[in-house]
Amino acid sequence: MAVLTTRALNRATLERQWLLRRVDQPPRTVVEHLTGLQAQDPPLPYLGLWARIRAFDKDALTRLLHDRTVVRATLHRGTQHLVSAQDYLWLRPTLAPMLERRWRTAFRKATEGVDPARLTAMVHALLAQAGSLTRPQLAAALAERWPDHDGMQLAWAAQGLLPVVHPPPSGTWGHQGPTPFALAETWLGRRPDGQGSPETLIRRHLAAFGPATVRDIQAWSGLTRLNEVVDRIRPTLRVHRGETGAELLDLPGTPLPDPDTPAPPRFLPALDNVVIGYADRSRLMTDEERRRVVVEAPLTADGFLCGFWRIERQGPKATLHIDLTRPLAARRRGEVAAEGERLLRFTDPDAAAHDIAFRGHHT
After folding, report:
1. Residue (of 163, 41, 19, 147) closest to 94 by Cα position
2. Which of 138, 161, 180, 273 is placed for a possible disulfide with 155 were both Cys, Cβ 3.0 to 4.6 Å?
3. How far apart are CA 240 and CA 247, in angstroms?
4. What does the alpha-carbon distance between residue 146 and residue 143 come to, in Å, rounded to a whole number?
5. DSSP letters along 4-71, please?
């Protein structure tokens, strides 16, 4: 049983996340390899793919949304994700117990006196008839049926009870506006049914995020009680130990790069699963950085989180603000600046001027 240092674990994670070097892969392949990208805000999956794909084109992902090859829906941890349509069909039933549990917790008070089966049936009927409805439109219809309840809360609750997706232009780069709902079975032409496959979920996580603990897999997916599933498939896994003695599950044959493998700087989108999809995030960041990573977009250098970033647009000028959390040598700071310029050309190609402003620790 190999003992993996934090640095070895870091490089294994970056290799499997395709963050050690950009890949020449189509967006769908990357989305499927990662088993989904965070899509709380429209730009997030675009930025996640830009960080991983050489010469990534925004339009390539937008086309996949329009032709229904990928879909945006409430999945891991009850948050918005972009997944391939093929993955959605098994992921939604796999995550259904978690989504229903979160529905009961989050909307118990708001839906008191509302029969979940009747709510589900009504939303299904409304969407089947209309094709798609925005959340305000759905809320208005539900408020007519249950006038003593907040229709918007009922509309939110429906996301946990019923397999729905959010058709484009929702979720596309630059789009602002209400989020429409459509039945997954209508949009995809197939119903996501069955019992799901937690075994597949575990293997997919290890392929893209491993080596990892059971708690890491649960933190990423939102599911609980995965120990018994792991025990069933344990003979097909390999096991490492971390520096603290934690059991790290892995797939046979997956890469474990040399811990000294160079890791270029990467500007990651806020909420990227590589920085929030672990119970123990020490492979990428400190505890102090962890407190900020849920609300700010992270920057890595030499494989580890070293700061946070945001872009401010004022007229024709786009400025990348970088707030460093640890010192950077002059060479690494230059690498960060060069990668930052590439980021600005991607996000603001129409800007007449680009600027990069550092603050915080640097040498």
Report:
1. 163
2. 138
3. 6
4. 5
5. EPHHHHHHHHHHHTT-SS-B---HHHHHHHTT-EE-SSTHHHHHHHHTTBTT--HHHHHHHHHTTSEE
Q: Mind listing the pLDDT tens digit for each residue in 72-97?
A: 999 999 999 999 999 999 999 999 99
- pLDDT for the residue numbered 238: 96
pLDDT at 39: 97
Tell me the backbone φ, ψ of residue 241, rounded to 5 degrees.
-125, 140
Residue type, 83: V
Burial of 277 (0-12, 13-18, 19+ CB in 10 A): buried
Q: Which DSSP category does 317 fall into?
A: E
> Does the pLDDT of residue 169 top 90, yes or no?
yes
pTM for the predicted model, two decimal places? 0.95
The CATH architecture annotation of domain 296-360 reads 2-Layer Sandwich (3.30)
What are phi and psi for residue 222, nearest 5 degrees? 90, -10
How far is 30 from 39, CA to CA, in rounded Å? 15
Tens digit of each residue's pLDDT (9 = 90 or more) over 288-298:
999 999 899 99
Q: How far apart are CA 71 and CA 232, in angstroms?
A: 31
Task: Give residue for tokens 């892995």.
Answer: 250
Task: Give the span between the Cα atoms of 118 and 310, in whole angstroms.
Answer: 44
Distance, CA of 307 to CA of 302 (rounded, Å): 12
Start-end of H helices in the chain: 6-16, 27-33, 43-50, 58-66, 85-106, 116-130, 135-145, 151-161, 184-188, 198-209, 214-221, 227-233, 273-276, 287-293, 330-347
CA distance 9 to 48: 21
Rounded CA gap, 213 and 56, in Å?
A: 32
Q: What are phi and psi of 219, to 5 degrees?
A: -65, -35
Domain boundaries, given as residue ranges, for the chain: 1-284, 296-360
